[in-house]
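Task 17 of the worksheet. Students: predict the tertiary structure of the chain below and write it out as C-alpha coordinates. Keep your answer in the requested format; marks are given for formatting as well as content.
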Amino acid sequence: MTRPHELPVDPVFALHRGGKIEMRSTARVRDREGLALAYTPGVARVSEAIAADPGLASTFTWRANVVAVVSDGTAVLGLGDIGPLAALPVMEGKALLFKDFAGVDAVPIVLDTKDVDEIVETVVRLAPSFGGINLEDISAPRCFEIESRLQEQLDIPVFHDDQHGTAIVVLAAMRNAAKLTHRTLADMRVVVSGAGAAGVAVARILLDAGIGDIAVADSRGIVHEGRRDLTPIKQRIASRTNRAGLDGSLYEGMKGADVFIGVSAGKVDESVVATMAAEALVFSLANPDPEIEPEVAHKYARVVATGRSDYPNQINNVLAFPGIFKGALDTGSTSITPAMKLAAADALAAVVGDDVRDDYVIPSVFDQRVAPSVAEAVAKAARADRVATR
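Model answer:
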Protein backbone atom coordinates (compact mmCIF):
# COMPACT_ATOMS: atom_id res chain seq x y z
CA MET A 1 0.00 0.00 0.00
CA THR A 2 1.36 3.40 -1.03
CA ARG A 3 1.47 5.96 1.79
CA PRO A 4 0.43 9.56 0.99
CA HIS A 5 3.92 10.92 1.73
CA GLU A 6 5.39 8.48 -0.79
CA LEU A 7 3.35 9.82 -3.72
CA PRO A 8 5.13 11.86 -6.39
CA VAL A 9 5.39 15.58 -5.67
CA ASP A 10 3.81 17.25 -8.69
CA PRO A 11 0.98 19.72 -9.33
CA VAL A 12 -1.53 17.00 -10.20
CA PHE A 13 -1.22 15.25 -6.86
CA ALA A 14 -1.08 18.56 -5.03
CA LEU A 15 -4.39 19.65 -6.57
CA HIS A 16 -6.09 16.35 -5.76
CA ARG A 17 -4.95 16.12 -2.13
CA GLY A 18 -8.09 15.95 0.00
CA GLY A 19 -10.30 15.75 -3.10
CA LYS A 20 -11.52 18.48 -5.47
CA ILE A 21 -14.98 19.18 -4.06
CA GLU A 22 -16.63 19.79 -0.71
CA MET A 23 -20.11 20.37 0.67
CA ARG A 24 -21.12 23.83 1.87
CA SER A 25 -24.29 24.92 3.65
CA THR A 26 -26.56 27.57 2.15
CA ALA A 27 -28.01 28.54 5.54
CA ARG A 28 -26.17 29.70 8.65
CA VAL A 29 -27.02 28.46 12.12
CA ARG A 30 -25.74 31.01 14.64
CA ASP A 31 -28.27 30.84 17.49
CA ARG A 32 -31.18 28.85 18.92
CA GLU A 33 -33.67 30.56 16.64
CA GLY A 34 -31.65 29.62 13.56
CA LEU A 35 -31.30 26.04 14.76
CA ALA A 36 -35.05 25.80 15.30
CA LEU A 37 -35.70 27.01 11.75
CA ALA A 38 -33.08 24.90 9.96
CA TYR A 39 -33.64 21.75 11.98
CA THR A 40 -36.12 20.67 14.60
CA PRO A 41 -38.83 21.76 15.16
CA GLY A 42 -39.11 23.96 12.06
CA VAL A 43 -37.95 21.37 9.55
CA ALA A 44 -40.85 19.11 10.54
CA ARG A 45 -43.30 21.57 8.98
CA VAL A 46 -41.43 21.37 5.66
CA SER A 47 -41.36 17.58 5.81
CA GLU A 48 -45.11 17.46 6.48
CA ALA A 49 -45.77 19.77 3.53
CA ILE A 50 -43.67 17.58 1.21
CA ALA A 51 -45.40 14.43 2.49
CA ALA A 52 -48.72 16.01 1.51
CA ASP A 53 -47.39 17.30 -1.83
CA PRO A 54 -44.18 15.57 -3.03
CA GLY A 55 -43.74 18.18 -5.74
CA LEU A 56 -42.73 20.68 -3.07
CA ALA A 57 -39.42 18.81 -2.68
CA SER A 58 -38.19 20.66 -5.76
CA THR A 59 -38.78 23.98 -3.98
CA PHE A 60 -37.77 23.24 -0.41
CA THR A 61 -34.81 20.85 -0.83
CA TRP A 62 -31.66 20.76 -2.92
CA ARG A 63 -33.20 18.20 -5.29
CA ALA A 64 -34.06 20.63 -8.10
CA ASN A 65 -30.43 21.52 -8.77
CA VAL A 66 -28.43 18.42 -7.93
CA VAL A 67 -27.22 15.54 -10.10
CA ALA A 68 -25.80 12.17 -9.10
CA VAL A 69 -22.67 11.29 -11.10
CA VAL A 70 -22.74 7.48 -11.05
CA SER A 71 -20.03 5.06 -12.16
CA ASP A 72 -18.95 1.48 -11.57
CA GLY A 73 -15.38 2.22 -12.70
CA THR A 74 -15.42 -0.17 -15.64
CA ALA A 75 -14.56 2.23 -18.49
CA VAL A 76 -12.71 5.16 -16.97
CA LEU A 77 -11.16 7.57 -19.47
CA GLY A 78 -8.71 5.48 -21.50
CA LEU A 79 -7.72 3.49 -18.42
CA GLY A 80 -10.38 0.80 -18.70
CA ASP A 81 -11.75 -1.22 -15.80
CA ILE A 82 -9.89 0.28 -12.84
CA GLY A 83 -12.63 -0.08 -10.24
CA PRO A 84 -14.78 2.31 -8.20
CA LEU A 85 -12.12 3.76 -5.88
CA ALA A 86 -9.79 4.65 -8.74
CA ALA A 87 -12.77 6.11 -10.63
CA LEU A 88 -13.68 8.46 -7.78
CA PRO A 89 -11.23 11.26 -8.73
CA VAL A 90 -12.78 11.37 -12.19
CA MET A 91 -16.31 11.54 -10.78
CA GLU A 92 -15.21 14.32 -8.43
CA GLY A 93 -13.83 16.15 -11.44
CA LYS A 94 -17.15 15.77 -13.22
CA ALA A 95 -18.96 17.22 -10.22
CA LEU A 96 -16.55 20.15 -10.15
CA LEU A 97 -17.26 20.88 -13.84
CA PHE A 98 -21.02 20.78 -13.29
CA LYS A 99 -20.69 23.45 -10.62
CA ASP A 100 -18.08 25.66 -12.28
CA PHE A 101 -19.62 25.69 -15.75
CA ALA A 102 -23.35 25.72 -15.02
CA GLY A 103 -23.92 26.21 -11.30
CA VAL A 104 -25.35 22.70 -10.99
CA ASP A 105 -24.51 20.78 -7.82
CA ALA A 106 -23.37 17.20 -8.30
CA VAL A 107 -22.47 14.28 -6.05
CA PRO A 108 -19.98 11.60 -7.16
CA ILE A 109 -21.23 8.07 -6.46
CA VAL A 110 -19.10 5.02 -7.28
CA LEU A 111 -20.66 1.59 -6.98
CA ASP A 112 -18.83 -1.57 -5.96
CA THR A 113 -20.67 -3.83 -8.39
CA LYS A 114 -20.68 -4.60 -12.11
CA ASP A 115 -24.04 -6.35 -12.02
CA VAL A 116 -26.60 -4.55 -14.18
CA ASP A 117 -29.54 -5.44 -11.93
CA GLU A 118 -27.71 -4.26 -8.82
CA ILE A 119 -26.67 -0.97 -10.43
CA VAL A 120 -30.19 -0.24 -11.64
CA GLU A 121 -31.74 -1.12 -8.29
CA THR A 122 -29.21 0.99 -6.38
CA VAL A 123 -29.70 4.07 -8.54
CA VAL A 124 -33.48 3.75 -8.39
CA ARG A 125 -33.33 3.65 -4.60
CA LEU A 126 -31.01 6.68 -4.48
CA ALA A 127 -33.03 8.70 -7.01
CA PRO A 128 -35.35 10.54 -4.57
CA SER A 129 -32.34 12.60 -3.44
CA PHE A 130 -31.55 13.88 -6.94
CA GLY A 131 -33.00 15.87 -9.82
CA GLY A 132 -31.01 13.97 -12.45
CA ILE A 133 -28.68 11.03 -12.99
CA ASN A 134 -25.44 11.35 -15.00
CA LEU A 135 -24.08 7.90 -15.81
CA GLU A 136 -20.35 7.93 -16.34
CA ASP A 137 -17.59 5.55 -17.41
CA ILE A 138 -19.71 2.38 -17.49
CA SER A 139 -18.55 -0.15 -20.08
CA ALA A 140 -20.51 -1.14 -23.17
CA PRO A 141 -22.77 -2.93 -23.83
CA ARG A 142 -23.94 -2.84 -20.19
CA CYS A 143 -24.24 0.95 -20.29
CA PHE A 144 -27.03 0.78 -22.88
CA GLU A 145 -29.23 -1.49 -20.77
CA ILE A 146 -28.54 0.41 -17.55
CA GLU A 147 -29.50 3.74 -19.11
CA SER A 148 -32.58 2.31 -20.82
CA ARG A 149 -33.91 0.64 -17.69
CA LEU A 150 -33.32 3.70 -15.54
CA GLN A 151 -35.08 5.91 -18.08
CA GLU A 152 -38.08 3.59 -17.91
CA GLN A 153 -38.21 3.49 -14.12
CA LEU A 154 -37.39 7.08 -13.15
CA ASP A 155 -39.21 10.36 -13.75
CA ILE A 156 -36.02 12.43 -13.76
CA PRO A 157 -33.40 12.90 -16.52
CA VAL A 158 -31.00 9.99 -16.99
CA PHE A 159 -28.08 10.77 -19.28
CA HIS A 160 -25.06 8.62 -20.12
CA ASP A 161 -22.55 11.32 -20.96
CA ASP A 162 -20.00 9.03 -22.63
CA GLN A 163 -22.68 8.38 -25.24
CA HIS A 164 -24.71 11.51 -25.66
CA GLY A 165 -22.29 14.23 -24.58
CA THR A 166 -19.77 13.13 -27.18
CA ALA A 167 -22.46 12.79 -29.84
CA ILE A 168 -23.88 16.27 -29.22
CA VAL A 169 -20.51 17.99 -29.46
CA VAL A 170 -19.58 16.02 -32.59
CA LEU A 171 -22.83 17.04 -34.28
CA ALA A 172 -22.30 20.70 -33.39
CA ALA A 173 -18.78 20.68 -34.82
CA MET A 174 -19.93 18.85 -37.95
CA ARG A 175 -22.66 21.40 -38.62
CA ASN A 176 -20.10 24.20 -38.63
CA ALA A 177 -17.51 22.20 -40.58
CA ALA A 178 -20.10 21.44 -43.24
CA LYS A 179 -20.70 25.17 -43.71
CA LEU A 180 -17.04 25.70 -44.52
CA THR A 181 -17.22 23.18 -47.35
CA HIS A 182 -20.61 24.39 -48.59
CA ARG A 183 -22.27 21.07 -47.84
CA THR A 184 -25.20 19.99 -45.71
CA LEU A 185 -25.28 16.94 -43.48
CA ALA A 186 -27.48 15.27 -46.07
CA ASP A 187 -24.67 15.60 -48.62
CA MET A 188 -22.12 13.68 -46.56
CA ARG A 189 -21.12 10.08 -46.01
CA VAL A 190 -19.61 9.34 -42.59
CA VAL A 191 -17.52 6.48 -41.30
CA VAL A 192 -17.38 5.92 -37.53
CA SER A 193 -14.51 3.88 -36.10
CA GLY A 194 -15.82 2.28 -32.93
CA ALA A 195 -19.16 0.69 -32.09
CA GLY A 196 -19.08 1.20 -28.34
CA ALA A 197 -21.07 3.71 -26.33
CA ALA A 198 -19.77 6.83 -28.10
CA GLY A 199 -19.79 5.34 -31.59
CA VAL A 200 -23.38 4.13 -31.33
CA ALA A 201 -24.58 7.44 -29.90
CA VAL A 202 -22.77 9.45 -32.58
CA ALA A 203 -24.38 7.31 -35.28
CA ARG A 204 -27.83 7.75 -33.74
CA ILE A 205 -27.68 11.52 -33.39
CA LEU A 206 -26.29 11.97 -36.91
CA LEU A 207 -29.14 9.86 -38.26
CA ASP A 208 -31.64 11.97 -36.29
CA ALA A 209 -29.99 15.10 -37.72
CA GLY A 210 -30.42 13.88 -41.32
CA ILE A 211 -26.96 12.65 -42.29
CA GLY A 212 -26.70 11.38 -45.86
CA ASP A 213 -25.21 7.98 -45.01
CA ILE A 214 -23.17 6.54 -42.20
CA ALA A 215 -21.23 3.33 -41.68
CA VAL A 216 -20.06 2.14 -38.28
CA ALA A 217 -17.06 -0.16 -37.94
CA ASP A 218 -15.97 -2.26 -34.98
CA SER A 219 -12.84 -4.38 -34.58
CA ARG A 220 -14.22 -6.93 -37.06
CA GLY A 221 -15.14 -4.47 -39.78
CA ILE A 222 -18.18 -2.57 -40.97
CA VAL A 223 -21.40 -3.28 -39.09
CA HIS A 224 -24.06 -4.51 -41.55
CA GLU A 225 -27.15 -6.68 -41.42
CA GLY A 226 -25.41 -9.63 -43.05
CA ARG A 227 -23.08 -10.16 -40.08
CA ARG A 228 -23.97 -12.93 -37.65
CA ASP A 229 -21.77 -11.79 -34.74
CA LEU A 230 -23.66 -8.59 -33.83
CA THR A 231 -24.98 -7.74 -30.39
CA PRO A 232 -28.60 -6.52 -30.18
CA ILE A 233 -27.38 -2.91 -30.05
CA LYS A 234 -25.22 -3.38 -33.16
CA GLN A 235 -28.09 -5.16 -34.92
CA ARG A 236 -30.26 -2.09 -34.40
CA ILE A 237 -27.48 0.17 -35.68
CA ALA A 238 -27.00 -2.07 -38.71
CA SER A 239 -30.69 -1.74 -39.57
CA ARG A 240 -30.42 2.08 -39.69
CA THR A 241 -27.00 2.61 -41.27
CA ASN A 242 -24.82 1.68 -44.24
CA ARG A 243 -27.25 2.48 -47.02
CA ALA A 244 -24.33 2.09 -49.43
CA GLY A 245 -24.15 -1.61 -48.52
CA LEU A 246 -20.47 -1.51 -47.61
CA ASP A 247 -18.73 -4.65 -46.41
CA GLY A 248 -15.24 -5.40 -45.18
CA SER A 249 -12.87 -3.35 -43.06
CA LEU A 250 -12.93 0.21 -41.78
CA TYR A 251 -10.39 0.99 -44.47
CA GLU A 252 -12.85 -0.05 -47.18
CA GLY A 253 -15.45 2.26 -45.70
CA MET A 254 -13.10 5.23 -45.66
CA LYS A 255 -12.59 5.20 -49.44
CA GLY A 256 -14.37 8.30 -50.72
CA ALA A 257 -15.88 9.10 -47.30
CA ASP A 258 -16.52 12.74 -46.47
CA VAL A 259 -16.12 12.34 -42.72
CA PHE A 260 -14.10 10.12 -40.40
CA ILE A 261 -15.08 9.99 -36.73
CA GLY A 262 -12.76 7.99 -34.48
CA VAL A 263 -13.92 6.86 -31.04
CA SER A 264 -11.96 3.63 -30.84
CA ALA A 265 -8.21 4.30 -30.41
CA GLY A 266 -7.49 2.06 -33.43
CA LYS A 267 -4.76 3.57 -35.58
CA VAL A 268 -5.42 4.44 -39.24
CA ASP A 269 -2.66 4.43 -41.86
CA GLU A 270 -1.93 7.61 -43.79
CA SER A 271 -2.43 5.76 -47.07
CA VAL A 272 -6.06 5.15 -46.06
CA VAL A 273 -6.67 8.77 -45.07
CA ALA A 274 -5.46 9.74 -48.54
CA THR A 275 -8.40 7.81 -50.07
CA MET A 276 -11.05 10.03 -48.47
CA ALA A 277 -13.05 12.60 -50.44
CA ALA A 278 -11.78 16.10 -51.11
CA GLU A 279 -12.20 18.58 -48.25
CA ALA A 280 -12.82 15.74 -45.83
CA LEU A 281 -13.52 16.17 -42.13
CA VAL A 282 -11.39 14.12 -39.73
CA PHE A 283 -12.52 13.87 -36.10
CA SER A 284 -9.95 11.65 -34.35
CA LEU A 285 -11.17 11.66 -30.77
CA ALA A 286 -9.10 8.99 -29.04
CA ASN A 287 -7.18 10.63 -26.23
CA PRO A 288 -4.26 11.03 -25.74
CA ASP A 289 -3.33 9.26 -28.99
CA PRO A 290 -5.71 10.10 -31.88
CA GLU A 291 -6.53 7.41 -34.43
CA ILE A 292 -5.10 9.73 -37.09
CA GLU A 293 -2.36 12.08 -35.99
CA PRO A 294 -3.40 15.72 -36.60
CA GLU A 295 -0.28 16.39 -38.66
CA VAL A 296 -1.23 13.55 -40.98
CA ALA A 297 -4.92 14.47 -41.08
CA HIS A 298 -4.16 18.05 -42.11
CA LYS A 299 -2.50 16.81 -45.30
CA TYR A 300 -5.84 15.56 -46.61
CA ALA A 301 -8.66 17.08 -44.54
CA ARG A 302 -10.20 20.55 -44.53
CA VAL A 303 -11.18 20.35 -40.83
CA VAL A 304 -9.44 18.32 -38.14
CA ALA A 305 -10.78 17.83 -34.62
CA THR A 306 -9.41 15.83 -31.69
CA GLY A 307 -10.21 15.06 -28.09
CA ARG A 308 -7.07 16.85 -26.91
CA SER A 309 -6.83 20.30 -25.39
CA ASP A 310 -3.51 21.12 -27.08
CA TYR A 311 -5.01 21.18 -30.60
CA PRO A 312 -7.77 23.36 -32.09
CA ASN A 313 -11.32 22.03 -32.35
CA GLN A 314 -11.33 20.00 -29.15
CA ILE A 315 -14.40 17.76 -28.89
CA ASN A 316 -14.94 17.99 -25.15
CA ASN A 317 -18.09 16.79 -23.37
CA VAL A 318 -17.92 19.70 -20.94
CA LEU A 319 -19.32 21.78 -23.79
CA ALA A 320 -22.56 19.81 -23.48
CA PHE A 321 -23.43 18.17 -20.18
CA PRO A 322 -23.46 21.19 -17.81
CA GLY A 323 -25.85 23.18 -20.00
CA ILE A 324 -27.99 20.15 -20.83
CA PHE A 325 -28.59 19.32 -17.19
CA LYS A 326 -29.07 23.00 -16.32
CA GLY A 327 -31.84 23.30 -18.90
CA ALA A 328 -33.41 20.01 -17.85
CA LEU A 329 -33.29 20.80 -14.13
CA ASP A 330 -34.57 24.36 -14.50
CA THR A 331 -37.66 23.02 -16.25
CA GLY A 332 -38.12 20.02 -13.98
CA SER A 333 -37.87 17.76 -17.01
CA THR A 334 -38.76 14.12 -16.59
CA SER A 335 -36.33 13.00 -19.30
CA ILE A 336 -33.85 14.22 -21.91
CA THR A 337 -35.43 13.65 -25.29
CA PRO A 338 -33.76 13.31 -28.71
CA ALA A 339 -35.08 16.78 -29.60
CA MET A 340 -33.39 18.23 -26.51
CA LYS A 341 -30.08 16.71 -27.61
CA LEU A 342 -30.44 18.10 -31.12
CA ALA A 343 -31.32 21.51 -29.68
CA ALA A 344 -28.19 21.40 -27.54
CA ALA A 345 -26.04 20.66 -30.58
CA ASP A 346 -27.64 23.47 -32.60
CA ALA A 347 -27.13 25.95 -29.75
CA LEU A 348 -23.52 24.92 -29.35
CA ALA A 349 -22.86 25.33 -33.07
CA ALA A 350 -24.56 28.75 -33.01
CA VAL A 351 -22.11 30.06 -30.41
CA VAL A 352 -19.43 29.93 -33.12
CA GLY A 353 -21.77 31.57 -35.61
CA ASP A 354 -20.22 33.58 -38.44
CA ASP A 355 -16.76 33.33 -36.88
CA VAL A 356 -16.45 29.74 -38.07
CA ARG A 357 -13.14 28.79 -39.67
CA ASP A 358 -11.08 25.65 -40.21
CA ASP A 359 -9.56 25.77 -36.73
CA TYR A 360 -12.71 27.04 -35.00
CA VAL A 361 -15.75 24.85 -35.62
CA ILE A 362 -16.54 24.40 -31.93
CA PRO A 363 -16.32 26.93 -29.07
CA SER A 364 -13.71 26.91 -26.35
CA VAL A 365 -14.76 25.16 -23.16
CA PHE A 366 -14.07 28.47 -21.43
CA ASP A 367 -16.47 30.46 -23.62
CA GLN A 368 -18.97 31.74 -21.06
CA ARG A 369 -21.76 31.79 -23.64
CA VAL A 370 -21.81 28.01 -24.00
CA ALA A 371 -23.67 26.69 -20.94
CA PRO A 372 -26.36 29.42 -20.90
CA SER A 373 -27.01 29.01 -24.64
CA VAL A 374 -27.26 25.22 -24.37
CA ALA A 375 -29.44 25.41 -21.25
CA GLU A 376 -31.87 27.84 -22.88
CA ALA A 377 -32.20 25.69 -26.00
CA VAL A 378 -32.67 22.51 -23.98
CA ALA A 379 -35.31 24.14 -21.80
CA LYS A 380 -37.23 25.35 -24.86
CA ALA A 381 -37.11 21.88 -26.42
CA ALA A 382 -38.23 20.28 -23.14
CA ARG A 383 -41.32 22.47 -23.11
CA ALA A 384 -42.02 21.72 -26.76
CA ASP A 385 -41.72 17.98 -26.05
CA ARG A 386 -43.94 18.36 -22.96
CA VAL A 387 -41.47 16.75 -20.58
CA ALA A 388 -41.06 19.98 -18.56
CA THR A 389 -43.01 20.20 -15.32
CA ARG A 390 -42.34 23.88 -14.62
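Marker's comment: The mean pLDDT is 94. Strands lie at 66-71, 105-110, 132-135, 158-160, 189-193, 213-218, 221-222, 259-262, 280-284, 301-306.
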